[in-house]
């Protein structure tokens, strides 16, 4: 697995530090609110598991799985729900947890979909953002790191379902996916 990685972009140490910072900020901002954190499967699972242990206020979790069609390294913009929430979010303060915001198409869909369910608020926390690739004007409320426009894997992010278990964020060698 390690041989397929060109370069380590973010180390375990950098990830840990940033997640603690985000958790502290979220704990402060959501104090006294009815927080429900929604993990977008599958990529956001390691991030959400680490993040919720840095959130020091009462909260709930739920999961949603969405997919754009195909297994390419590009988002198609056509999003479908593979697994919906188990619980209603009416009057709750929703925080969507994403692994990465790339074109922004997935996030736009999620925001529109969840906002229509009468939540008190809907915000977004993404671990990574590829700002230069944004096609749609959606801005995450909380963000770990801005990364350059390269295909990354690890810490939940996959290529064809592999590499999610790497404990760091790495750039995949182009020969692996081309
Ligand atoms: P959009 O373009 O809709 O993309 O913002 C969001 C989804 O696309 C996937 N994605 C990646 N997955 N390495 C990955 O493993 C990447 O560099 C990458 N860029 C986008 C990801 O599933 C994300 O939720
Ligand atoms: Mg993926």
From TrEMBL:
Q: Where in the cell is it found?
A: Cytoplasm
The primary site where this protein sits is: cytoplasm
Q: Which cofactor does it need?
A: Mg(2+)
Q: Which domain of life is it from?
A: Bacteria
Pathway listed: Purine metabolism; GMP biosynthesis via salvage pathway; GMP from guanine: step 1/1; Purine metabolism; IMP biosynthesis via salvage pathway; IMP from hypoxanthine: step 1/1
GO BP terms = GMP salvage; guanine salvage; hypoxanthine metabolic process; IMP salvage; purine ribonucleoside salvage
Q: Please list the reactions this protein catalyses.
A: GMP + diphosphate = guanine + 5-phospho-alpha-D-ribose 1-diphosphate; IMP + diphosphate = hypoxanthine + 5-phospho-alpha-D-ribose 1-diphosphate
Q: Which UniProt keywords apply?
A: Cytoplasm, Glycosyltransferase, Magnesium, Metal-binding, Nucleotide-binding, Purine salvage, Transferase
Residue ranges of every copy of the Phosphoribosyltransferase domain listed in the record: 9-159
Alphabetized NCBIfam families for the sequence: HGPRTase
Q: What is this protein called?
A: Hypoxanthine phosphoribosyltransferase
Q: What is the lineage of its organism?
A: Bacteria, Bacillati, Bacillota, Clostridia, Eubacteriales
| GO CC annotation terms, alphabetical | cytosol
Look up the coiled coil feature and give its residue ranges: none
Pfam families (alphabetical): Pribosyltran
Describe the function of this protein.
Answer: Purine salvage pathway enzyme that catalyzes the transfer of the ribosyl-5-phosphate group from 5-phospho-alpha-D-ribose 1-diphosphate (PRPP) to the N9 position of the 6-oxopurines hypoxanthine and guanine to form the corresponding ribonucleotides IMP (inosine 5'-monophosphate) and GMP (guanosine 5'-monophosphate), with the release of PPi.
What GO molecular function terms would the record report? Answer: guanine phosphoribosyltransferase activity; hypoxanthine phosphoribosyltransferase activity; magnesium ion binding; nucleotide binding
Family designation: Belongs to the purine/pyrimidine phosphoribosyltransferase family.
Catalytic activity, EC = 2.4.2.8
């Amino acid at each position: 697995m390690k041989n397929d990685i060109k370069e380590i972009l973010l180390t375990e140490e950098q990830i840990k530090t940033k997640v603690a910072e985000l958790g502290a900020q979220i704990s402060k901002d959501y104090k006294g609110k009815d927080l429900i954190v929604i993990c977008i499967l599958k990529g956001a699972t390691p991030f959400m598991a680490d993040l919720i242990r840095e959130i020091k206020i009462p909260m709930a979790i739920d999961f949603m799985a969405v997919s754009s069609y195909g297994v390419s390294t590009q988002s198609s913009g056509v999003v479908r729900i593979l697994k919906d929430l188990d619980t209603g979010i009416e009057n709750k303060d929703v925080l969507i947890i994403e692994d990465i915001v790339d074109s922004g198409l997935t996030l736009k869909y999620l925001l529109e979909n969840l906002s229509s369910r009468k939540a008190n608020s809907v915000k977004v926390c993404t671990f990574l953002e590829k700002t230069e690739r944004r096609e749609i004007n959606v801005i995450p409320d909380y963000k770990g790191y801005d990364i350059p426009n390269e295909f990354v894997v690890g810490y939940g992010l996959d290529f064809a379902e592999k590499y999610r278990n790497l404990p760091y964020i790495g750039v995949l060698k182009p020969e692996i996916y081309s």
